Amino acid sequence: MELSTTLAGPTQRAASLPTPPPFARVPLDRPRVMAVVNVTPDSFSDGGRWRGSDAAVDGALAMVAAGADFLDVGGESTRPGATPVSPAEEQDRVLPVIEGLARAGCPVPISIDTRHAATAQVAFAAGARVFNDVSALRHDPDSLSVAAALMAAHPEAGLVLCHSQGDPETMQNAPRYAHVVRDVAASLAAARDRAAAAGVPAAQIALDPGVGFGKTGAHNLDVIRGLPAIAALGCAVLLGVSRKRFIGALAHEPDPARRAPGSIAAGLFGVLRGAHILRVHDVAETVQALRVWTAITHPSEETSAL
Ligand code: HH2
After folding, report:
1. Mutation probe of ligand 1 site: the residue of 63, 160, 219, 279 with most atoms within 8 A of C-beta
2. Distance of alpha carbon 259 from alpha carbon 263, whole angstroms
3. Which helix (H) or strand (E) holds 151?
4. pLDDT of 109 above 70
5. Which of 223, 198, 77, 222 is CA-nearest to residue 142?
6. H helices then E strands: how many in the chain?
7. Cβ-proximal residues to 71 (8 Å cutoff; 6+ apart), any chain
8. Which residue's CA is the nearest one to ligand 1's atom 1?
9. pLDDT tens sequence across 262-273
C-alpha cells in the first residue's frame, strides 16, 4: 500500500478551513504557544515550581523570551482528584504574578486560568486579557455574565471555552460518551452559542476539547484525531496535551517533567488536525518543534534561502 494511502485518514488536515481572526490580538496564521504558569502547590506537573511571585514573574518572562505567545496563569489545580480552592485563595496566588507581569511590561497577552468569575474580574483589572475557563462558564453561575462584560469592555480580549465532563474531583470516575468526538463538538458548539447569546462574538472565543477532563486515554486520542470537527465550528482551537497522564501512559514515563517529547508529538498532530494554540509547559522545546514544522508546512523567503 502506498504510504500516502496509509496516512490519508489520520494525517488529513482540518479541510482547509479559513484562519480564524487574531485571538487576543495574536494572529493565528501560524501555530501559537500558550505557556503554563501555575502558581499552585499541587499542580500535577509543575506544582510548587516557583518560590514566590517574583520567581513566577521571572519564570514567565523567560518563557516569553523562549517564544511563548501567551502566558496562562493559574492558581487552582484542576488535575483529576484535585481539591477546589476558594476564589480568595486563588486570587492571593495569581494577582501578584499578573500585577508583576503587567508592571514588567509583559509583551504577550496574559491569560487567567480560572473557574471563578470574581477571579477573572480581578485578573482583568490587573491586566489579564484572556479568560480561560476549563468548565466553559458552567462552574460559577456568574461566569457567563462576567465573561460577556469583560469581552465587551475589552474587544481585544479572548475567552477560552474548554470541554469537561464533571468536576475535577470526580471527572475521571468512568467517563462515558455516546460518541466522544460528536459529544465534545456538540457541547462546545452549545457553549459557544450560550456565550454568543450573552453577547460574546465568536471572534473572541477559542474552543478546547479539554484533553484529560472527564476522558479516558482512548477518549483523549479520539478527540485529538477528531479535532477537525471542533475546528469546523469556526472559532480558534486551543489544545492542552502537555505532560498529561495519557502521554505518560503511552510513553511509559511516570515523571511528568520528562514528557516533553510525547507532548510535542501529540501537539504537532493536533496542529495538523486544526489546533491553533498549544498550551504547554515545555516552551522552548515546543517552539523549536513548531519552527521546524512551520518552515516545512509554510514555505517562505526564509526557507527558500536556506
Ligand atoms: N489543562 C489544565 C489546566 N487548564 N486549560 C485549558 N484551556 N486546556 C487544558 O487542557 C487545560 C487548562 C491542566 O493542566 P495543568 O495546568 O498543567 O495542571 P493543573 O490543573 O494540575 O494545575
Report:
1. 279
2. 6
3. helix 143-153
4. yes
5. 198
6. 12, 8
7. 34, 35, 37, 60, 63, 64, 101, 106, 108, 109, 110, 111
8. 240
9. 999 999 999 999
